[in-house]
Amino acid sequence: MFGLIELWEQSGQTQPVFCAAQGVSLASFGYWRTKWLALHKSEEVQSPVFVPIEKPTPKSVDAKAAQVYEIVYSNGVRLCLPSLDLSILPQLLTLDV
What we know:
Elements: H1 2-11, H2 15-22, H3 26-43, E1 53-54, E2 69-72, E3 78-81, H4 89-93
Antiparallel strand pairs: 1-2, 2-3
């Protein structure tokens, strides 16, 4: 049925005319079109959510404190790291916290 829905979109015909030509009931076509629309809506690419990586300003001039990196997740969880190996950054950003 999904193939028929895609064929209908390209045909330029109204649904009743297309269904009559294909021998498909309009109700059945409408049901499957709703399913097709829901499937495609769930597959839409959503814009990525970027998580800021902040290098906090140290409250003192301690050189070690200046090297702390902080990742703040969208749920408020903060991950503080004394150093940051950029090779593990993708794993840190995809953590399900």
